[in-house]
Amino acid sequence: MIIRYYSRTGNNRLAAEYLAERLGLEAREITEAGRTGERDGLMGAIFGTMFGRRPPIEDMPDEDRDADALVLCAPVWATQLPGAVKSYLEEYSPGHVKLVTINQGNRNKKARARADEVLQLKLPKGTARLSDLSSYRAELDELAERLNGS
Ligand SMILES: Cc1cc2nc3c(=O)[nH]c(=O)nc-3n(C[C@H](O)[C@H](O)[C@H](O)COP(=O)(O)O)c2cc1C
Question: What CATH number is given to the structural domain containing 22?
């Protein structure tokens, strides 16, 4: 099992890092090729996602191609996973995909369709960036326990 994440405002990074610590794994970030920081190329990434673009991404470990299960922490943009995440899934095609996603929790249909399992964590109304994970800890702990036993 591997943990990978994509994050632009830090929410899904927090979830990935928390789960990684609980599971004794390393969370690695999926990013567009050449991206220099959280905000770099963000508008282009959002528009590209809406128009179905699959941007080139930074290389990920070769082991990802053989992973039996992927815990994927990622946002939803306009109902779908960010283009870079789709590029990753298509290029590395890991096994069973468990999507853990912190988002607004309203329009997530296309993102869900990409995963075998989904843990949906809803952002509090009016919150863009979480300061901590306190409201999701029970759900993340329960997931980590289940994954530890599987
Ligand atoms: C352009 C844009 C579109 C979004 N579209 C959706 C959406 O369709 N459904 C949803 O539930 N959340 C949506 N969100 C909310 C994000 O998924 C949410 O802010 C997420 O926590 C960001 O994750 P990050 O901090 O890991 O980057 C959207 C956010 C942005 C910036």
Answer: 3.40.50.360
| Model pLDDT, residue 55 | 98
Tens digit of pLDDT for each residue in 43-78?
Answer: 999 999 999 999 999 999 999 999 999 999 999 999
What's the domain range around 111? 2-149
Report how far ligand 1's centroid is from the alpha carbon of 107 (Å). 10
C-beta of 127 in contact with ligand 1 (< 6 A): no
Q: Which residues contact 143 (CB under 8 A, 6 or more apart)?
A: 19, 98, 100, 119
| C-beta 107 within 6 A of ligand 1 | yes
